């Protein structure tokens, strides 16, 4: 995988396979579109239980998991613990904060 050097960190430049998990369809599609514009391969899933099932069956198909901290089905920390029990994968937690 090709990488670009940013400071002291190597960042993959393209082709990273990402499992994106979040219940908000608008946020999910927006984040997926942005990642795909940068040549990342994104699989977007709305339900945490389905995402865990996919990871159990196809763990080697993903390089990174991005999960929304505001999941409806389960606490995101439980999701992360379950993911790490399957096989260690890097996980990024994201949220969308809005002032009302």
TrEMBL record:
<dbReference type="Pfam" id="PF00072">
    <property type="entry name" value="Response_reg"/>
</dbReference>
<dbReference type="InterPro" id="IPR001789">
    <property type="entry name" value="Sig_transdc_resp-reg_receiver"/>
</dbReference>
<dbReference type="GO" id="GO:0009736">
    <property type="term" value="P:cytokinin-activated signaling pathway"/>
</dbReference>
<keyword id="KW-0805">Transcription regulation</keyword>
<dbReference type="GO" id="GO:0000160">
    <property type="term" value="P:phosphorelay signal transduction system"/>
</dbReference>
<feature type="domain" description="Response regulatory">
    <location>
        <begin position="17"/>
        <end position="100"/>
    </location>
</feature>
<dbReference type="InterPro" id="IPR011006">
    <property type="entry name" value="CheY-like_superfamily"/>
</dbReference>
<keyword id="KW-0902">Two-component regulatory system</keyword>
<protein>
    <submittedName>
        <fullName>Type B response regulator</fullName>
    </submittedName>
</protein>
<dbReference type="InterPro" id="IPR045279">
    <property type="entry name" value="ARR-like"/>
</dbReference>
<feature type="modified residue" description="4-aspartylphosphate">
    <location>
        <position position="68"/>
    </location>
</feature>
<keyword id="KW-0804">Transcription</keyword>
<keyword id="KW-0597">Phosphoprotein</keyword>
């Amino acid at each position: 995988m090709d990488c670009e050097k940013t400071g002291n960190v190597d960042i993959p430049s393209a082709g990273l396979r990402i499992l994106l998990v979040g219940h908000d369809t608008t946020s999910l599609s927006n984040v997926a579109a942005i990642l795909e514009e940068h040549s990342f391969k994104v699989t977007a899933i709305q339900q945490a239980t389905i995402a865990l099932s996919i990871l159990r069956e196809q763990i080697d198909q993903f390089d990174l998991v991005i999960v929304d901290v505001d999941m409806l089905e389960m606490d995101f920390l439980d999701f992360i613990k379950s993911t790490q029990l399957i096989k260690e994968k890097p996980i990024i937690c994201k949220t969308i904060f809005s002032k009302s």
